[in-house]
Write a structure and sequence with these properties.
Layout: H1 7-19, H2 24-35, H3 40-49, E1 54-55, H4 56-63, H5 67-79, E2 83-88, E3 91-96, H6 99-113
Antiparallel strand pairs: 1-3, 2-3
Helix pairs in contact: 4-5
């Protein structure tokens, strides 16, 4: 048997690892979720929103980007349920969808800084 161990131990390891494995659809959803974090512009927007609710113009100014470029990324982040929007008259304000998003950013930062 490769890498040591018995056939019984091998079988137990395989069974243990596959027992908690989500189904393919869920794995695809998780992959799509993490894909949102693969773009530094989206990360910057999420980071900016950690400070609280902001309008698209404020986000664009804070990041030195065009409103159009920010709006495009906001749409993707909203579709992925990482941010939410609130209308106030003609203005739309964006914020992180929930505490999980901030936690993911914080964990990623912590991991990178180790």
């Amino acid at each position: 048997m490769e890498h040591g161990g018995t056939h019984k131990e091998h079988g137990e390891m395989v069974e243990r690892s596959s027992a908690g494995m989500p189904d393919e659809r869920t794995l695809d959803d998780i992959s799509d979720f993490f894909r949102m974090f693969s773009d530094s512009t989206r990360i910057k927007i999420l980071w900016a929103l950690e400070g609280g609710e902001m309008g698209v113009c404020c986000i664009a100014d804070a990041l030195g980007m065009t409103v159009s470029a920010v709006s495009h990324q906001l749409r993707k982040l909203r579709d992925a349920r990482l941010i939410k929007s609130r209308k106030d008259g003609r203005n739309v304000f964006y914020s992180l969808d929930d505490d999980h998003v901030e936690g993911i950013l914080d964990m990623a930062y912590e991991h990178i800084m180790e």
